[in-house]
Amino acid sequence: MVDVTPADGVPPAEVAEMELYHPHSWWTKYVFSQDAKVIAIQYSATATAIGMVALVLSWMMRLQLGFPGTFDFITPEAYYQFITMHGMIMVIYLLTALFLGGFGNYLIPLMVGARDMVFPYVNMLSYWIYLLAVLVLVSSFFAPGGPTGAGWTLYPPQAIMTGTPGGQDWGIILMLVSLILFIIGFTMGGLNYVVTVLQARTRGMTLMRLPLTVWGIFTATVMALLAFPALFVACVMMLFDRALGTSFFMPAIVEMGEQLQHGGGSPILFQHLFWFFGHPEVYIVALPAFGIVSDLISTHARKNIFGYRMMVWAIVGIGALSFVVWAHHMYVSGMHPYFGFFFATTTLIIAVPTAIKVYNWVLTLWRGDIHLTVPMLFALAFIVTFVNGGLTGLFLGNVVVDVPLSDTMFVVAHFHMVMGVAPILVILGAIYHWYPKVTGRMLNEAMGQFHFWVTFLGAYLIFFPMHYIGLMGVPRRYNELTATTVMTESAHDLNAFISIMAFLVGFAQIVFLFNLIWSIRHGREAGGNPWRATTLEWQTSETPPAHGNFGKELPIVYRWAYDYSVPGAKEDFIPQNMPGSFGSSREPA
Amino acid sequence: MSVILVFLLVIVGFVGWWLSHQRLMAKPWLEQGLIGDIIGPEGSALPTAKIGLGVFLAVVGCLFALFTSAYFMRMALSDWQALPLPRVLWFNTGVLVLSSIALQCASVAARRGEIDAVRLGLVTAGLTALAFLVGQLVAWRELTADGYLLTANPANSFFYLITGMHGLHILGGLVGLGRTTAGAWNGARPERLRLSVELCAMYWHFLLFVWLAIFALLAGWAATFIEICRQLLT
Amino acid sequence: MAIALVLVLVVVGSVLFHFLSPWWWTPIASNWDYIDNTIIITFWITGVVFAAVVLFMAYCVFRFRHREGNQAAYEPENKRLEWWLTIVTAIGVTAMLVPGLFVWNQFVSVPSDATEVEVVGQQWQWSFRLPGKDGKLGTSDTRNVSPENPLGVDPSDANGQDDVVVEAADLHLPVGKPVKMLLRSIDVLHDFYVPEFRAKMDMIPGSVTYFWFTPTKTGTFQVLCAELCGQGHPLMNGVVMVDTPEDYLAWLGEQQTFAQLSAPQQVGSAE
After folding, report:
1. Over 60: is that where the pLDDT of C139 sits?
2. Which positions in chain A touch B165 (Cβ < 8 Å)?
3. What ipTM was reported for this prediction?
4. Rounded to whole angstroms, what are the CA distances from C240 to A302, A341, C196?
5. Contact A457/C3 with Cβ under 8 angstroms?
6. Where do the record's region annotations for Disordered lie (chain C) (predicted)?
7. Which of A142, B92, C123, C170 has its CA 20 to 30 A from that of B116?
């Protein structure tokens, strides 16, 4: 055991005068604020607002699928616009923005013991460009021809042709411009998250003392910085094809009996670029969720996260590996068949570090002191849905099994379970967990319980049976299944059941939003550290933390983030900034 | 996609090297209190702004590596017809090299505290960079006049796209350079000025490097080079 | 506490659903039962893992739920356990990957006696072309497409003259003979998918993709498009009829060749 140097005698690090821009007016405090915490709330509110749009769109889709022919206003065009916008909003504008822009901004400076992000001005710009991107996206709903209906993958040639809604109107152009803006905005934010972790950690906060939340968000941001340029390139080139008539992706095409001007381009090239971004994107959403859920489980089970080092290595390993698996989205795209061998192997290798993470979460529960709080419930539900969705990933990643299943409802069920439901359950749990820090009050428990049960069970009942519809061979992206013979009568009934569940789950989210607003005033007062957690954000002198986060002096870190239930310690948690040595036998027997 | 994978391999190598210095094998639960060798400010001794710029340049490098990847993949298809590069590109290259040298001089001068030399270097760099942009526009006009239109062939499309993207990055750099230059006249604090000049120089050198790579790519040398490597390997 | 019970119910419910629900794949009608077997192996392995993890979790929640005076154990890691779990996982993953790659190798190696059949997708219908007596398909190019030549067959290629062209109608295949489907599109991406055959592949304008299979059952099967191709996507249905050799020959005799279709006197006499 490494013993302690006389920590109490070490003076705090001399904190250089940070160039914090202290707000002088209401505008600079709440609107054009450079405080990462305010930016975090702005990001979260915008992402939630646009996410509600996506939720309503999913209801529309489910109305059509569950009760075909009943709702005349859902035309085929409208249906394709709904699925496209739903997918794009959920993946990019909600999940990516909320995890990195929302949680990243709020938690990174607090958790590493910094006063703010290192480039506050750029950080502020990041949000405003994000907002602009969202507004451009929303504007496409009001543009002539409506938003694009090309599917969230935006595959050319159809994305920019007349047979697709918005293809020859404004829809696709606004979509591409919005994505380009998002990427520019994200890059500004991403630089902050990465460099803050690199440079602004407080004294004593070595990398191996970082909470896994920070590890997850940090790794995801590094990946996003390297992956989003691929989407950027794809968008710019497609914009050229659509607006200027180049042929990057467009081969010779006969559309409705007429030869188009394009020629020689490669639709597969777009797919490679898109998925070179698209696969890391899955982990950009998953890694922050992995990190956050580790902290939720550890805190609420009052036990250190099992195998911390393995967890860190797994996060880094998954991050690196996720750049060499992209073509598993393209097994049936017509690319060279021999790629299948390579990408199936790399894809299944990723399952190993991912499985280790799952084992470590459940082993953290073993011999813990499990408090079944709402955040803990969400964390448990995350494990169930993530394991389920991850395991069906082994079907789709194994090249030959993917052949019958790709582009069916099985895929839809799989990715919703693994990167829709699972990360959102973490987001919800995380909101219940950190809401007291953000507002000083607890969320209402009864509403929370209701929200949890309906969301978890409802989402499971939506997506688990959906796999079997896919197994029957029912393709995805069909607004009309009456002409499809593999779709049996009973499967139509199942679809109706799924739709009803979707409405229920959506309704529970409205209750949750109400809870968020109601508890700001009426919630129980939380105090500074209601969960008795060890990490630095709970040790601030004020709750909610003021601008500058930590009062006069930055905390000094003396221990890792998981000193829960240390034998011999007085309490069952030791904050990271508590000096001194505790515990007689720390080496496991 | 091999170009971007090689680029990422370099990044992974760098990240791996850095991580290997971060004691990832340590058992953090055994290390309570401040331990002798980890006392001191966390993070690197380099200025934060430089690290920020470094990360940004990695992203920019990634962007151009991806364009290069797309270029090679599109080039393999049958309708590709290489276009003749305008002579003026050689001149532009020379000008951009001058621009980088001027900034390097300014950065050395800033270290020595010679404010006049700094100003001279900054202005020279700015003017030469502008000249580069004008030269690029001339190259575009020449090509258009000779009938090498944007949509006529993917080689042309890539030429305009990639040079345009590079030009936009220079333009963005000019904004930063303009602010630094203004600071040099308005009496910014010496250490601050020095940092700004060094950041500009870093960015300029990087864009020069990117330009040389692009030039080699558009001229077809990159393809020849890769072909030679491939033959050597097999 | 309720959560422990619910977790058990989730496992039991999922397993029961899997075995008892009426929703399962369609009866196979091709040689790709290898794929079905691989799926079954994967179902077993993943199912066991799912049940084990969730039940273990349920037990933990039940056994170690907070009660007054409880204290959690302190156990930062357990190298041996972690290594064992890693190795077991790696074995499980290999058990799925190896048969998968094995079957994939079969999937991409077309037998030499397979007859070629060309499928051409366009918004939103299927057309087909069979090699004529010479057994060879003529070359084609989207640039040749016109109302008289909907598939863009190269008129100057002698191999193409006797090709049988089936425009926007049913495809017939003889049972028991391997076929190599050559897939082509003249506008956007499509994907030729017959659920009963288990195989599918995207069709890309500007290039020719392929897959092969052997129909093993006679009957009528619906062709679905499995790659979003615009708003007519769900209605882009077609029919493949797998015939006995006699029926197949009878059908083939009724079809017209490219030369017949493009001969001027034939225009107007088409049914």
Report:
1. yes
2. 236
3. 0.94
4. 61, 30, 11
5. no
6. 135-158
7. B92
CA nearest A391: which of A365, A412, A409, A417?
A417
Q: In this structure, what is the dihedral angle of CA atoms A150, A155, A161, A162, given to the nearest 10 degrees?
A: -20
- DSSP 8-state symbol, A538: G
In chain A, how many domains are there?
A: 1
- Please give the Cα distance from A66 to A78 (Å, whole number): 16
Centroid of chain to Cα A299: 21
In the numeric block, the tokens 């709020």 are attached to A106
Chain B 99-128, residues with CB within 8 Å of chain A CB atoms: none
Task: Return d(Cα B122, Cα B105) in angstroms, integer.
Answer: 9
Domain ranges of chain B: 84-233
Does pTM top 0.90 for this prediction?
A: yes
Q: Print the SS3 string covering A486-501.
A: CCCHHHHHHHHHHHHH
**Long-range contact pairs involving A9-13 (C-beta distance under 8 Å, separation at least 24):** A10/A556, A10/B34, A10/B39, A12/A203, A12/A553, A12/A554, A12/A556, A13/A202, A13/A203, A13/A554, A13/A556, A13/B41
Low-confidence ranges of chain A (pLDDT < 50): 1-18, 589
Which CATH class for the B84-233 domain?
mainly alpha
Please give the C-alpha separations between residue C71 and each of A193, A211, A529, A535, C60, in angstroms, as whole numbers.
Answer: 36, 22, 19, 20, 14
pLDDT at res. A258: 87
CA–CA dist C199, A401 (Å, integer) = 10
DSSP C27-70: PP-BSTHHHHHHHHHHHHHHHHHHHHHHHHHHHHHHHTB--TT-
Query: 3-class DSSP state for residue A364?
Result: helix
In chain B, the N- to C-terminal Cα span, in Å, equals 20
Per the CB < 8 Å rule, is A265 touching B59? no
User: Can you give the length of chain C in residues?
Assistant: 271
Structure tokens at B50: 């430089």
For residue C73, tell me if it sits in a domain: no
Tokens of C226: 């499995």
CATH number of domain containing C254 = 2.60.40.420
The HSE-up count of residue A247 (CA atoms within 13 Å, CB side) is 25
Contact between residue A356 and residue C82 where contact means Cβ atoms under 8 Å apart: yes
Q: Which two tokens stand for residue C84?
A: 């064992």
- Looking at the complex, does the CB of residue A307 fall below 8 Å from at least one CB of chain B? no
- Look at A574-578, B192-196, C205-209, C264-268 and tell me which has the smallest mean pLDDT: C264-268
pLDDT digits (tens, 9 = 90+) for A82-130: 999 999 999 999 999 999 999 999 999 999 999 999 999 999 999 999 9
**Full domain range(s) for residue C14:** 2-65+78-108
- The closest of A419, A483, A83 to C228, measured between CA atoms, is A83
CA–CA–CA angle B150, B154, B156 (5° rounding):
45
Is A203 near chain B, with CB under 8 Å?
Answer: yes
B36-57 confidence digits (pLDDT tens): 445 445 567 788 899 999 999 9
Distance from CA of B104 to the nearest CA of A (A): 25
| Residues 6 or more apart whose Cβ sits within 8 Å of residue A276 | A227, A230, A323, A326, B1, B4, B66
- Please check whether residue C164 is in contact with residue C130, taking contact to mean a CB–CB distance below 8 angstroms: yes
Structure tokens that stand for C242 in this block: 């797998």
Please report the residues numbered 46 through 75 in chain C whose beta carbons come closer than 8 angstroms to any beta carbon of chain A.
46, 49-50, 53-54, 56-57, 60-61, 64-66, 70-75
If asked whether residues C248 and C171 sit together in one domain, one would say: yes
Q: A259 with C143: CB under 8 angstroms?
A: yes
Is any Cβ of chain B less than 8 angstroms from the Cβ of A10?
yes
Do A526 and A440 touch, CB atoms closer than 8 A?
Answer: yes
Please check whether residue C71 lies inside any domain of the structure. no
CA distances (Å), origin A169, targets A237, A381, C233: 18, 43, 19
Q: Which domain holds residue A184?
A: 32-249+264-539
* Selection from B218, A401, A566, B50 nearest residue C103 by Cα: A401
